[in-house]
Amino acid sequence: MKRIRSLWFNAEASYSNLNNSPSLRNKNSTGNNSRSKNYRSFSRFDLINSILLLMMLFLLAIFVTALYLTKSSRLTYSHASRAALFNPLGVISPSLGNHTLNYDPEARESSKKLYELLSDFNTAYYDDENMILGSNLFSKNTYSRQPYVANGYIGSRIPNIGFGYALDTLNFYTDAPGALNNGWPLRNHRFAGAFVSDFYCLQPKLNSTNFPELDDVGYSTVISSIPQWTNLQFSLVNDSKWFNPQNVTLDDVTNYSQNLSMKDGIVTTELDWLNSQIHVKSEIWAHRHIHPLGVVSLEISLNTDHLPSDFDSLDVNIWDILDFNTSHRTVLHSTGTDEKNNAVFMIVQPDNVPSSNCAIYSTCTVKYENSTNPINSSESFEEKDVSSNIYNVILTEDQPKIIVHKYVGIMSTEFNKNKEQQDNTNIGLAKMIALNSKGNYEKLLSSHKRAWYDLYNDAFIEIPSDSLLEMTARSSLFHLLANTRDYNVSSDRGLPVGVSGLSSDSYGGMVFWDADIWMEPALLPFFPNVAQNMNNYRNATHSQAKLNAEKYGYPGAIYPWTSGKYANCTSTGPCVDYEYHINVDVAMASFSIYLNGHEGIDDEYLRYTTWPIIKNAAQFFTAYVKYNSSLGLYETYNLTDPDEFANHINNGAFTNAGIKTLLKWATDIGNHLGEVVDPKWSEISKDIYIPRSSSNITLEYSGMNSSVEIKQADVTLMVYPLGYINDESILNNAIKDLYYYSERQSASGPAMTYPVFVAAAAGLLNHGSSSQSYLYKSVLPYLRAPFAQFSEQSDDNFLTNGLTQPAFPFLTANGGFLQSILFGLTGIRYSYEVDPDTKKINRLLRFNPIELPLLPGGIAIRNFKYMNQVLDIIIDDHNGTIVHKSGDVPIHIKIPNRSLIHDQDINFYNGSENERKPNLERRDVDRVGDPMRMDRYGTYYLLKPKQELTVQLFKPGLNARNNIAENKQITNLTAGVPGDVAFSALDGNNYTHWQPLDKIHRAKLLIDLGEYNEKEITKGMILWGQRPAKNISISILPHSEKVENLFANVTEIMQNSGNDQLLNETIGQLLDNAGIPVENVIDFDGIEQEDDESLDDVQALLHWKKEDLAKLIEQIPRLNFLKRKFVKILDNVPVSPSEPYYEASRNQSLIEILPSNRTTFTIDYDKLQVGDKGNTDWRKTRYIVVAVQGVYDDYDDDNKGATIKEIVLND
């Protein structure tokens, strides 16, 4: 059978090569034409028979192989999607190169307006070309406005002045008690501190825990911070004026700028101080290759233009300080000065861990600009817990600038592999690193930048149409890389990565499932060694997990919910009666590394690393589940699923689906390795209970009612990353689940939710573009300016978000967002199939790309690592391509067949469990026959080195027939509920929505139908869900061919006009090309408006789509025709509910998908006239404003506005 399978793959590849047309878009293939031959008759009849017999045998071999493949097992179980007019056959051809994506300058420019939707962006900026994020606002210290530096070993959060230690002093929302605190479990004052990887302490009790009774059986382990190594200060006039984070006030600072370069991880701060007399510039970086080295550069200079007339000189004392008081949860071991080397040092130990310490050794070079002679420290200063060196300098107009370079060596027991050797003590190594670096600033800076550039050579993501999304992808990659490393990670310890990495003690720096399910998979395709280091931490703590199981009388192993220095059961990280799914998460992460198959990951890794984890988890779950004889199924009890709003429930859906899937993995891996396989695993996997409602919606847990509000993605995790779908009925249930739970996520829930919905929507839905609207929903509510760091919550105000102080930065969201692109939009999955004869696992890559209408030009993922090969994955506007660009081994690829997806076959509740309404737009889908050499679940390809596989993208259909607005661009002109994005109103998904922030003010959405729209709106519909508005209005901007021509060219011309003279020269040409004389005044006002609201809409339009055009109008104010008004074509139409209130649904807690209220309308243009009589071209508008007012039931207790689920506009 193995030989037959090999022949089958080669035959498929050969067949694909026959179809080597350069474009799949226009190919009309039936799947059989390429095989039809015209055979000539031969005189020898037996020869003909022989040929026919061989052909029959060949076809039989293909059929048998396909039959076996149909029965084989998978990690990812999605079995198909059928599409109308979709040809799933791909073309294998020689590689064509880089596949440069189309660049649309208008879309790119428009996307930059999305930055303004980010929290706190009003004084922020982003340099797209140089990947620099920054702010011009000098404010009080608050965590979300602070950048950080890190290199995977050391890290430091940087306060407002650019260096030193600072406590937060500002909360945007409230000054209530606790407003400046971090969240669970420390609930301590937030601070800009310094951290070292794996530097954990032990605490007998914490401020907040889940299971305080467990404090009696084991200490909790949380991260310790070390003395702030960026601590430089300087003072003036006999120390009467200090420059440090505590003493610099807002009034002291002008000309402020602080930025973070994502290209090289350097934070630069510049400002003028003391009436602009002194200019201060600092640069801080953690060396990317020499991990124990931190560097601070400080320049202090006189602004000679602002000095008083009697200025003579300025005495400056520069302090190099190590202060134990800037460290948390540590014990001071020793501190002192090294006068010979102008250095200070300090050694601290984490609380209650005397076997560990961290040594910090700091030394400086201080020079006048253009001088080669360093200045020695004039004084050393030591107190009980502070050591410092003081450098006295004098600034004059002849010597106006002093440059300080601070070199800090930082060495912890956990990083020092050679600590057993006497000459390699932590303080000895820290000293050696600092002194060897001293005086080599430029050389070190160059090597640091080179190390970062080399990292980016291994990974790059392009989204040419959207600057914000591309920036978020790049910043997410940066933040994950800054907090992880490949170098000097012991295989017997691994790399523990906390939720907030190396710049914060949010969540106590502990390791959660965030590392296994969110961060590690995002790094695996680009940096498999880093991902393996992270997973090795779980392997290193596996022996403790076995002890945990033994402690509670179970076989196998049980990982605690939280881990740190140890993985014992604690009050923050219980092992039982809580989130058992952590054991599935750890196993899945390890198995994914095997399925990715980078260098050295073979059956030995599977046998000695992955198998013990999965086997022990299987053994534990086999003992943990209980058989319910009434149901004839296995159940689970007293647990918490990922939705932590529901604790101590039974039969958590994700947990039970995870057990089912893990036991399947255990069986397959055991058989593959020839190990003993417990037959009970297959039995439980087959018969574990997944609770469902009578309407076949998966219940998150047994007894769930209809009033549920979900904290975060839970049931949807069964689709991704678990890959639970394994038959058509479960696929159809998963679609219902996606719809149902999309409407029940908490508006202020964590940023780990919607990346999962991206992947689920892309894989499950054959209509609309909600995979992309969910992508925006993953970013806009959660990303914080100015330094593109994710917050855990969409709403950071703990008084309105359920008393949650968000973790920050939230690396979990960075990992989730990257996965939504890498695996969600591309449909890429690591997968496997089992040979039914040999029981051997065969790894393959699943590729299921779809068109991305909200991302014109597509996406590109460069240097994706798979099976130790390097791939490029390209999704353009028409085709999906995998390029085998490096390596010498073929890879197996599977393209799923989308024919089983029926995402509109949803019957609504109709007041009775036995009666349900059909879906809004249910209709039959044209289906094509199965192509040649394609089993029911997909088509297989063998991609060889230097080849590429190109497949036509699946084109999702319109959710509502002839809706000219669906999948178009949209923005909200008024505020929405935190967490909502306007894209949801046009995404073709009836279960996403945009909701105004309040029901008092008029809410507006602005729609762009795109260039040269030839259709006029004659009717339409608004889908409201369960909360309709009180009234609705629609306005359009009258169409003008001249304005359209101007719009089409202005962005490119404005971008390419480098100066005012060139701009003036090109404006005339621009207007001539558009056929617009400058003197021309055209009255498009048409109808008298009641107010200037419609003119405001024009200004909003120009601000959104064409800031360049707004600038052009300022240059040529006589272009009055550009200032025309929107015209109302629907004016304050009252809204009436189209559906009754289904009281029984709530009273009886029925889990049902309820029908949506809807308002239909028609447009009567006879009552409207714009421009010349008889001219109707103005109706073919491009821009539309939809305005809603209030809610139908104004007397309810909810202050939020109506829910707008879908806007349908028909011609």
Write a structural description:
The protein has 1211 residues and is an alpha+beta fold. The chain has 22 helices and 46 strands. A 10-stranded antiparallel β-sheet has the order 2-3-12-13-14-15-22-19-18-17. β17 (330-338) and β18 (343-350) form a beta hairpin. α7 (513-523) crosses α17, α15 runs antiparallel to α16 (770-779) and α20 packs across α21. The longest helix is centred in the N-terminal third of the chain and has 27 residues, at 45-71. The radius of gyration is 32 Å and the shape is globular. The chain crosses the membrane at residues 47-67. It catalyses: alpha,alpha-trehalose + H2O = alpha-D-glucose + beta-D-glucose.
Tell me the β content. Answer: 15-25%
Radius of gyration over alpha carbons? Answer: 32 Å
CATH architecture of the domain at 134-209 and 219-455: Distorted Sandwich
Report the uncertain regions.
1-45, 62-86, 916-934, 1078-1091, 1115-1123
- Distance from N terminus to C terminus (CA atoms, Å) equals 57 Å
Structural class by SSE content:
alpha+beta
Largest sheet: 10 strands, antiparallel
Number of helices: 22
Report the principal-axis shape. Answer: globular
CATH topology of the domain at 134-209 and 219-455: Beta-galactosidase, Chain A, domain 5
Secondary structure: helix percent: 25-40%
The total strand number stands at 46
